[in-house]
Amino acid sequence: xxxxxxxxxxxxxxxxxxxxxxxxxxxxxxxxxxxxxxxxxxxxxxxxxxxxxxxxxxxxxxxxxxxxxxxxxxxxxxxxxxxxxxxxxxxxxxxxxxxxxxxxxxxxxxxxxx
Length: 114
Fold this sequence. Notes:
mainly alpha
């Protein structure tokens, strides 16, 4: 979505549409992420699902702060349209990290105790 925004920077109607879609897709993901964190807390810390939910919200706020910092730096260094592709790179790194964690978790579950 961010790369589409970057490519459509010269078209106001497309920017309005894509920005709205980005917002909608972002907010649709929040309840699913919150549910997943609480589900994981039942496995790893069954006595503390409220703490897990709070840490999830803290993570979102940390992401907002980091995104603002990176966005401001890219805006100052490279201009307005750079914020979209810089954001896309950060999202790509996040996806790679998530896939790596999923692979590590699968490997831990399939290990046979010696």
